[in-house]
Sequence to fold (389 residues):
Amino acid sequence: MAEIELRKRLMVVEEIFHEGGPVAADPLKRAAAISVIANPFAGRYVEEISFFMKTLEPLGLEMAQALVRTLGGDAKAVQGYGKGAIVGAAGELEHGALWHVPGGYAMRGALGDAKAIVPSAKKVGGPGTRLDVPITHINASYVRSHFDAMEVGVPDGPRADELALVLVMTTGPRIHARVGGLAAADIRGLDGLR
Amino acid sequence: MSPLVIRKLVTVVDEVLIEMGQQVSPPTRRAAAMAVIANPFAGRFEVDLNDLIERGTELGRLLTEKAVGALGIAPEMVESYGKAAIVGEAGEIEHAAAILHPKLGSPMRAALGGGAALVPSAKKRGRVGSVIDVPLGHRNAAYVRSHFDAMEVGIADAPRAREILVVVVVTDSGRPLPRVGGLTKDAILGQDGLR
Fold:
C-alpha cells in the first residue's frame, strides 16, 4: 500500500510583461507543477502516516526538476518558490502536511543551496478548489520585492480521495515591485531570512 | 495599428495518466496558451473592429506556437484543437468574435502544418478569474468522436474590465478512455474536414 498513484499532472506557466506600468523586455515567469494523486489515508483516521513523506520524495524531485526545465533549464534563474496542497474532502488537513518535507527538500535539491524556508499553504477542498500558493525569495524570506502568491487549481481535482500537490517557482520580483524593504541585492545570506 | 502589447501569457499543460483506475498509455495531453491584451474598444461602441480582427493574425500564430511548444511535440503531431476568448466587462461579445473568427484560424493552421476541420470555439463576457470551457475537435475531421472534448481554463487576475483573454488549445490525443464508438481517427476520409 501507499505507492504513488498519479492520476494527472498540470504544468502552468505565467509570463507577466506588465501590469499597467512599463513593459518588461524580459517577463517575470511563474510556474506551478501540480500532481493529483490518490490519498492512501482517505475515508478514515490513520494514526501513522508519516512514512508517506518518504514515498513522496521522488515525485517531489521530479516536479521540481520539471519546473526548472520549464523555466529555461537553468536553476540559477529561479529566485522565488512556494508550495501547497489541496486535500480532497475525504481526507484531513494533516494529509496535506505530508508535503512539507518532500516538497521543500525537492526544491532545494533542484536549486542547489536555497536557504529560505519554503512558504506554504494547504486546505481541504473539492474539484476546482483554488489555492493561493505563497511565494518568497529562495535565499532570504524578508526580500520584499519577491513576496507574492500564485493562484492554482485543477478543474477536476482533487476528488474526495485524492491529494493535489503543488510546487511553484518564479524568476524574479513582482513585475512593478516598488514598496521598498530588503532588496535581493542586499541579502546577507546567512540565516535564510535576510 | 499599434504594436501588440501583451500583459501576460499563460500556458497550461494537463496530462491524464490514470482515469477511473485505468492506466492511460500514453497519457493524454492538452495544452492551452492564453494571452491577455488590452481591449482598444472597451467602454464604447465602435462599428469598425478591424484593429481586433488584425490581432487575430498575431495571436493565432503566437498562441499556437506556445501551446505546441508546451507539449514539446512536432506541430504535425497535434490531433485536436479549439479556441476561445473572454471579454472583460467593459467590452462586448463581438470583440471576442473579431479576434477569433476572421483571422485567427489561418495562422493557427499554418503553425500546425494544416488542419482541415473547423476550429471549435467558445466566447463569453466575464470578469477577473472567469473560466471558459474551450471546445475541442479533431483537426482534420470534425466528426471524430473520440476527440470531442473541452478544456476548462482561466487566469486568476484576468480579464480586467478593459482586457480580453484569448486562448488556443491543442492536444496530442483524444479523451483518456474513448469507447462510445463513432468515427475514429484511423478512418478519416480527409476530404471535407468533417469525416
User: Anything to note?
Assistant: The domain at 6-186 of chain A is CATH 3.30.1330.110 (60s Ribosomal Protein L30; Chain: A;). The helical segments of chain A are 52-70, 93-97, 100-111. DSSP finds three helices and seven strands in chain A. Chain A touches chain B through 21 residues (CB under 8 Å).
